[in-house]
Amino acid sequence: MATPMEMNIKKLCGEAARPDLANPSEYRQLIGALMFLVNTHPDICYAVNTLSQFMTKLLHVHLIASKHILRYLYGSITLGLRYSARDVQLHGYTDVDWVGNVINRKSTFGFCFRLGSAMISWMRKKQNSVALSAAEAEYIAASMASCEEVWLRKLFGELYEQVLDTAVIYFNNKSGIHLEDKLVFHKNSKHIEIRYYFIQDTVQRGVVRLHHILIDE
């Protein structure tokens, strides 16, 4: 398998899931083993975290999804990250699955940062609040990514005594970029928590530059 989990995970807790129960002991032992494996394979962290939420109310589809992770691990044994000293430009990418959780309608966001030739940092997490629009969800994700970018700049500054150039964060929502450009509150953004306006400050100081990227359907 090319990915740890299928893109559309709504079927794990939706009506599409088959009602027949899997073997509870087999499933729990497999998830427990995968939890230990996360320490050396952070790329499966989100998939394992998602499946661990069904330890008590598990269906047959959950067991299938857990074996999907095993197939991904088997197919990615020879893969790795290679770093080059030629390029030290920091690039970030972020995306959001708006209201993707069918239970509480919260959005899941993810971001990753690449230093030159390979990834050095990544995260995928459910947002704390329900976003009322895709632009708001993307804006929150970009704010969280900018916090990571500031931390990475400080880390490299302490380790190598080198100041990185302005990082570029790519995301696929133009409304979120327009929201960042407006330095005043208006009816479409006044409900957003103040802490998510951190990205405005980073952009104004030249620490981060936002760039729109097209996503192929």
Count of alpha and pi helical runs:
6
What's the average pLDDT? 77
Number of domains: 2
CATH fold title of the largest domain: Nucleotidyltransferase, domain 5
What is the level-2 CATH architecture name of the largest domain?
2-Layer Sandwich
End-to-end CA span: 21 Å
Helix/sheet category = alpha/beta
Instruction: Give a short account of the largest sheet.
Output: 5 strands, mixed
CATH top level of the largest domain is Alpha Beta
CATH superfamily of the largest domain: Ribonuclease H-like superfamily/Ribonuclease H
Could you explain how this protein is built, in words?
The protein has 217 residues and is an alpha/beta fold. It has 2 domains: 66 residues, no CATH class; 123 residues, Nucleotidyltransferase, domain 5 (2-Layer Sandwich), CATH 3.30.420.10. Helix content is 36%, strand content 16%. The protein is built from 6 helices and 5 strands. Strands 3-2-1-4-5 form a 5-stranded mixed beta sheet. A hairpin with a 2-residue loop joins strand 2 and strand 3. Helix 4 crosses helix 5 and helix 4 crosses helix 6. The mean pLDDT is 77.
